[in-house]
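User: Can you fold this complex?
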Amino acid sequence: MKRNSKQPLEIVIPIKMKDFKAGGDGAARIKQVLQKIGFPPDIIRRVAIAAYEAEMNIVINSLGGEIKATVSTDVITIIARDYGPGIPDIELAMQEGYSTAPREIQEMGFGAGMGLPNIRRCADRMTVESKQGQGTTITIEIYNR
Amino acid sequence: MKLSEIARQLDLQVLAGEKELEREVSSGYCSDLLSDFMANGPARCLWLTLQTHINVVAVALLVGAAGVVITGGRQVAPEVCRKAEAEGLPLLATKYCTYEVAGQLYNLLQGEK
Ligand SMILES: Nc1ncnc2c1ncn2[C@@H]1O[C@H](COP(=O)(O)OP(=O)(O)OP(=O)(O)O)[C@@H](O)[C@H]1O
Ligand SMILES: [Mg+2]
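Assistant: Here's the predicted assembly.
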């Protein structure tokens, strides 16, 4: 992949609801691109974790959406956007251990309520915006330094 | 220790990724919660889990695990094995429970030090 250092690279991955088979493919693609460029392993790990958690939250909780990664030399930005239903109480959702995952999802190993806290730990900046009935946008920035 | 040696000593059945068994294993991690392994699983570790779902492969690859051991004699669907094979991820299985496998693995890896 060719990259002009002044021109950020953009990767957009559509995410389908309940598509567990493809779940994680988006994060894997972003990881691959960062490895090719040669980012440090700890930065790649943080981006991969954040992208994966955001991706699986879209798969499990939303009607579908997309993950967009913008990669420049100093910062990697991930914007995870979905089409609803939105998060009613963001503060509550951000708490470690809080999950609305139903039993069958829990049995698959999801629903520890660790996804959003994991993203926060990996991110240098994180914002969550959500409108009930419209959707959720999570913006994650990870600085390369 | 090489994964092939661990597989031999712990009598693990190889379901996929046979060609990648010469990898070095740094440590082990036991978890059935994907987000927990994602957050805390060390790179190049052997992941012991009961989960057999296809997302286990994706998570193991993202973390950079040396391989996955499915414990407790659980059946693994062919599509999960195929995905692990395609991605070059060693996928192993055992009838023993996580506790027993972890104890033995711990002894093996400690014995090396
Ligand atoms: N994109 C989203 N749309 C709607 N609700 C969401 C979304 N993301 C998260 N949530 C809500 O926030 C809760 C907490 O999310 P979080 O990722 O922290 O945990 P989890 O997905 O339930 O479990 P884990 O990530 O540990 O498997 C979810 O159970 C869900 O109720
Ligand atoms: Mg989650």
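The pocket of adenosine-5'-triphosphate (ligand 1) is lined by residues A 53, 57-58, 60-62, 82, 87, 93, 98-101, 110-116, 136; B 35 (CB under 6 Å). The first helix of chain B runs from residue 3 to 9.
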